[in-house]
Amino acid sequence: MKIIIYGQSTTDYSCQVIKNVIRFFVEHQAEVYVEAAFYDLIPDLNQEFNSLKKFESHHTVDASFDYFISLGGDGTVLRSVTFVADSGVPIFAINTGRLGFLANIQPDTILHSLQQLINKQYVLSARTVLELECIPNKNEFSEVNFALNEVTVSRKDTTSMITIETYLNDEYLTSYWADGLIIATPTGSTGYSLSCGGPVLTPEVSSLVVNPIAPHNLNARPLVVPDETQIKLKVSGRENQFLVSLDSRIAIIDQETELIIKKKPFKINMVTLQNESFLRTLRNKLLWGEDKRN
């Protein structure tokens, strides 16, 4: 068994959790790789474990690995996706952060959850990924031009709104006059898009959400479209540049750039344990059905 372990930051508490996870896999004779920058954040790791290997690039991650272990919060999961890419390696997300909607394995259940993983007591949830193409291509996001949650266009260095001319499969939809526009996957529908009034989509739905951010034209509402739709955006405004983000990664784009957003041909596999589900996560994390009148 080959395992990759990745995180972005540590605390005294999370370091112990991380070492417990590593110890579990070492004891199960797994070949364990730890991302190099993360490895250096964990005190005395090389003294406690002498069989660990380091990796530095997404080029290391291929189909020979059994699992990609994400240790952190939802932001860490989104960064994990950039390593996994089209390899098909399942992501097992352990929450050592805060809310943990994607990273929903809690530290107090880790050993039991890891045993379920080893016993293959889980299902894989295949998640849609969005690709961004910029025309002309200025290589803003290099090879990692995809997002699990959303592609977002927003204003830069101004309080003025921007105009986002939007086309669906080359047919004109509308021009949003707003602070920005979110194109969200079902996974991203519970993130930024939800906070901007968008609908929640279950992960298996083959749809995308087109959701304006604080639109001036108040009749502009979130729109759900098939995920086979190609979305084209042209942005204009008082400034010569605007911002584009792929999940948590941001680039500055010139106004004359045309953005093409479409579904990637691959999906990201998220591990869902048998006693977990998307609906249970909704109830636990978003407090659906909670009666706060008492």
Main-sheet strand order equals 8-7-18-15-10-11
Shape: globular
The count of DSSP E runs of length 2 or more, i.e. the number of strands, is: 19
Question: Total number of helical segments?
Answer: 7
Cα-to-Cα separation, first versus last residue: 50 Å
Report the portion of residues in β strands. Answer: 35-45%
Mean pLDDT level: 92
Low-pLDDT sequence parts: none
Binned, the helix content reads 10-25%
Radius of gyration: 20 Å
* Biggest sheet character: 6 strands, antiparallel
Structural class: alpha+beta
Q: Spell out the helices and strands N to C.
A: EHEHHEEHEHEEEEEEEHEEEEEEEH
List the helices and strands and how they pair.
Elements: E1 2-6, H1 12-27, E2 31-35, H2 36-41, H3 45-48, E3 53-55, E4 67-72, H4 74-84, E5 91-95, H5 110-118, E6 122-127, E7 130-135, E8 146-147, E9 150-154, E10 162-168, E11 171-178, E12 180-184, H6 192-195, E13 207-213, E14 223-226, E15 231-236, E16 241-246, E17 249-254, E18 258-263, E19 268-273, H7 278-285
Parallel strand pairs: 1-2, 1-4, 2-3, 4-5
Antiparallel strand pairs: 6-19, 7-8, 7-18, 9-12, 9-16, 10-11, 10-15, 12-13, 13-14, 15-18, 16-17
Compose a concise summary of this entry.
The chain is an alpha+beta fold and 294 residues long. The chain has 7 helices and 19 strands.
